[in-house]
Design goal:
globular, single chain, Helicase, Ruva Protein, domain 3, about 120 residues, 6 helices, mainly alpha
Length: about 120
């Protein structure tokens, strides 16, 4: 049995990511850049996934190209060390949470994207 976040619509959480970033003076565009870097979605693909209200499971399963450098994401988010998360889908979700957290904490985009734009 999977965690309930797996069946939660990505579109319902996306505005929370944007709000968290904007509260700290960052932008929706930066959130989108992070998501696109992590998943390989382009702007149109990301918008389509949001409009279709896909769940997290589908969102990550349909990702065009999960970034190989995501394995460089380390640290703690929500009290969990992301690199130690065993369940693959939960690890992808935690990677995204960690990147949004880093954005909100004021980290430079180059560092968040692990040194690369794509």
């Amino acid at each position: 049995m999977g965690h309930r976040i797996y069946t939660t619509s990505f579109a319902s959480v996306y505005p929370l990511y944007v709000a968290k970033a904007e509260r700290k003076g960052r932008t929706k565009e930066e959130v989108d850049t992070i998501i696109e870097w992590l998943t390989g979605y382009d702007e149109t693909g990301l918008e389509r996934q949001i409009a279709n209200q896909v769940d997290f499971d589908t969102f990550f399963a349909s990702a065009p190209r999960l970034n190989e450098d995501r394995a460089l994401i380390k640290g703690v988010v929500c009290g969990v060390r992301v690199e130690n998360v065993e369940e693959p889908l939960m690890r992808e979700i935690r990677y995204l949470d960690k990147l949004i957290d880093e954005l909100a904490k004021g980290k430079k985009m180059e560092k968040i994207l692990r040194g690369g734009e794509s």
